[in-house]
Structures are given as C-alpha cells and as structure tokens.
C-alpha cells in the first residue's frame, strides 16, 4: 500500500505539471493568433486608407481638357477604376470588417480585453474615408459627363462658328471693290436705274446677312462664356468680320447717294425717251396688226360675211387720219430729244433704252400699210362679186330642190295610198302601178338637172343654203326610196296574183283580206306589228289570248308569217297565211300515196316505171334526186320515193 501510495502521488504530480503546461501553451497560442490578426488588421487598414488617400485627390482633380476625345480618355480611366481597381478594394474593406468582428469575438471569448486599433484605423474611420471616396467618385463621374457635354457643345459651336464665318467671308469677298467702283459715271439713265435697282437688291442682301453677322457674334460670345480653349482666335476672327461689316455699311450708303444723284441728272432726257417708248410701242403694234389684217386671207361663205369684212375695212380706213396724227406726234418727241441733246452737249447712246422701235421703222411700216389699203379694197370687191354669184347658184338650186322634194313627197304619199286602196282587179292595179312607175321615171331629167346645179355648188365650194332645207343627199335617198317603193308595190301585186292563181283565192277574198289588214294597220305603215297582228287573229277567231296556250299558238303563227323575226307581218305574208288556213294544199303524205299508186303498192319505184308514168323531164328529175331504196324487199335499181317526197316539203334532207 505504501508503494502504491507513493506511485500514485508521483504520477499525480506529473499529470498536474503536464496539464499546467498544456494550459499555458493554449493561452499563448490564442494570444499569438490574436496578435497576428491585430497586426493583419493594422496592415490591411493602413493599406486601404493609403489607397483611399491617394485616390481621392485623383477623383477631385477637375482639370479641363480641350477636346471631347481627351475627356473620353478620362472617362475610360474612370471606367477602369470602377471595374478593375475598386472591386478588390471593396473586398478588402469587407474582409477588414470581418477580421475586426472575428477578432473582437475571439478576445471576448478568451476573456481578453477588446482590441483597440491605432488612432485613425478604426472601422468607423475606414467607413468615413470610404464614404468620402464614394462622394468624390460620384462628383467625378458627374463632372466628366457634364464636361463631355460642354466640350461637345463647344465643338459644335466652333464648327458652326467657322462655317458661318467662311460663308460670310465668301459672300463679302470682292464686295468692297464693287462698292468703291464708279461705273455709273458713264452710264445712261436706264443703266443707272438698273445699277440702282441692283444696289437696292444688294442692300436687301446686306440686310439679310446682318442676321448671320449677329449669329457669328452670339456664337463667339457663347464660346467665351463656355471657356473655349481657342477663344482668342475666335474673338479675333469675329472682330475682323464686325469691322469689315461696318466698312461695307458705310460704302453701301455712299454708293447709294452717288447713284441717286446721277439718276436725277439723266431723268430729264429719259422722260422724253420713256414717253416716246410708251406711244411708239402701241402705235407700232397697231401698224403691225393693221398690216396683218390687210394681208390676212379671208374665207367667207355668204354675202353677209363679206359685207361684214367690207364694213370693218371701211371703219379701218376712217381711223387712218387720226393714226397719221399720232405718228407725227411720236416723231416730234424724238425731234425734241435731239434738240435737247444738241443744246446741252449730251452724247446720246446708240438708241432709246426703252424700245428698239426707231422713227425710221415707224415711217417704213406706215408707207407699207398705206400701199396695202387699195389692194385690200380690190380683194374684198372681188370676193363680194363671187359671193353674189354663189348666192345666185344657191337660189337656183333651192328652187329646183324645193320642187323635186315636194314631188317626191307627194308621190311617196300616193304610192302608199295606192298600196292600201283596192280599186279594181289585181291586174288593173298592176297595170295602173306600172303606168304610174313610168310617169315617175319620166321625172328623172328633173333629178339630173338638180344634180347639175349641185355640181356647180360643189365646184364653188358652197357648203350651206339658206333658201332650202333640202340637201342633195336627202333628195337622192328620197328618189331612190320612191323608185324602190313603187317597184316593191308592183312586186307585191304580182305575188298576190300568183298566190290567188295558185291557191284559187277569189277577188272577193283578196278584198276581204286587204280590208282586214288595213283595218288593223293603224299607223298605215303597210305592215302589221305583233300586237296588231294578234288583234287581227283574235277577230278571226284564233285562240291567242294572253294565257300560256294562247301565247304558244301566237308564237307558232308568228314563226310562220315572220320567219326572220322582224316583229312585223307584211300583207303578202298575211295573204299566204290566210290562204294556207282556208284552202287545201298538197302534203308529203298525198305525194307518197300518189307515188305508191304508180309503183303498184310497192315501197319502192323503178326508173322504168317513172319514165312510163311521168313526162320525160319530170321523170329524169325524180330519177336524178331519188336515193336508192335499201329495204328488205329491194330489187336492183329500186328508188326510195318516200324520202324524196318528205324532202320536197322540207321534212327531211333531199
């Protein structure tokens, strides 16, 4: 137990020493770590504060540059500062605050006193310095932007200033020499007036350029206010322009006075020139117009027109004495000019500045016009004689035309009346119409005589005739219509005779047909319109009322009497229709039955049978046109009389 107790006490003392040593090491390690963090904090804070101290003066530097490009370089440097240099410092500041907080926590946990950085290196000091840095940074950025805008404005103004100066200097180039010349001393009044008007235009131009000079001065002032780096040269150029402008104003006023004084000296002579020009120009125009009128080719068509020209010519001749007085007055003005010039020793220019009309040209034109007057008298008298002759031709043609026109009109009415009336038999009517036709044809010499008169009128180039409303073309058409109408009427009577003989119609039936036709021919046109024909059919008992069946029946009948669709029914068509409706007529069936008798009830017929039963020419006609028979009972040489018969009546192709 003693040994054990000794061992226990020996080992227990050793463990306490080791524990004490470990505690001391641990305390020393914590202390060393804290001291290292303190040193790191002090160094990091010193470096950050030093960087802020160096950066703030750079950001507060407001040295102005001359150009936008130079300021853009500064802007680029500032962009590098913001994007490259500042972000690491932001990290350092953040790390500094983290280190400080961590150090304070460790000191507090290790029961150590709080860390107090050296003076000026507190976190609050660093935040304050950082705040000052950001303030300088913001001001620097705003200054760069405002400075770029200022320099852009300055560059724009400088370019504008030099452009306006160049334009103004280009305009003023040579103006002083122009204003100091004395070209007006040898000019005429018109030239002086022209120079004066030109000078007035120059004054207007000068006044217009006043605005540009004021703009140049205003731009120069603004460049000075904006502290333009090259303001000295701008001011010198602006001053030169202003001084030159004052000189131009003085020279302009002096030249105007000289021009006005010279103008008054020449006005006395110029007034006479002007009066001469004012009176000579209208008189010259009057003479030229008179000469044109005296030489003018005239085209007239009747006596009234030529008499009007003669009257106008007589009125013109009555104005000649007054015109001669005006000519003498104009010549006296020129004589007065010569007199004044000679008495005052004035050297006149080559001619009147206001007109190119000379006294010699006026006299020459006057003599030419006077020589043309009798020639015009003769021409007008010859034309009057020609128009009198033309008027006689008009009257002769009109007398014959009125007679022929009345004759044609009367005969047309008579033919129309004859075609409607029913006097005597058709043969009597035909005889009377042919006699009537001969009497009309016998009138042909009168038409030929009228043609001769018309030829004379055409040769005389006469285009109107106030003595008659008839024209040759109208009378020709009327004459041809008259001959055509009488020929058509004769043909209608001949067709009526053929119809009567072929259909066995009596004279009384024809009278009845004519009476019915005339009764419904309300307008006496010689043809029945559709409605007139329908009324006629209704009176004859046909069922053509305004219902579906009646319309169909009427359309069928109209297709018979008016196959061309003209909408009118002639008397011949009316007779054909009525005779067809009231008389027997051959049909295809009747002809087939007749051929069947000749063929001994066979369905075909032979050439020998035809030659035996029919006249030779008719037999050969049938043989040539009949088709071969092809039925089951056919024999060699058999002919088809059935198809031939139907073809005769249009029921099949022949």
What does this structure look like?
One of its GO terms (molecular function) is calcium ion binding. This is Alpha-actinin-4 isoform X2. InterPro entries: EF-hand-dom_pair, EF-hand_Ca_insen, EF_Hand_1_Ca_BS, EF_hand_dom, Spectrin/alpha-actinin, Spectrin_repeat. This protein is mainly α and 654 residues long. Helix content is 78%, strand content 2%. The chain has 20 helices and 4 strands. It starts with a helix and ends in a 6-residue tail after the last helix. The model has no long low-confidence stretch (mean pLDDT 77).
Mean pLDDT: 77
Share of helix, binned: over 70%
Largest sheet, spatial ordering of strands = 1-2
Using the alpha-carbon principal axes, give the shape. Answer: flat
Strand count, sense and closure of the main sheet? 2 strands, antiparallel
> What string, H for helix and E for strand, traces the elements in order?
HHHHHHHHHHHHHEHHEHHHHEEH
The multimeric state of the shown protein is: single chain
Q: Count of helices?
A: 20
Query: What structural category arises from helix and sheet content?
Result: mainly alpha
**Low confidence ranges:** none
Radius of gyration: 67 Å
Number of strands: 4
| Straight-line distance between termini | 172 Å
Relative strand content: under 5%
InterPro entries: EF-hand-dom_pair, EF-hand_Ca_insen, EF_Hand_1_Ca_BS, EF_hand_dom, Spectrin/alpha-actinin, Spectrin_repeat
Domain EF-hand: 508-543, 549-584
Keywords: Actin-binding, Calcium, Coiled coil, Metal-binding, Repeat
GO molecular function: actin binding; calcium ion binding
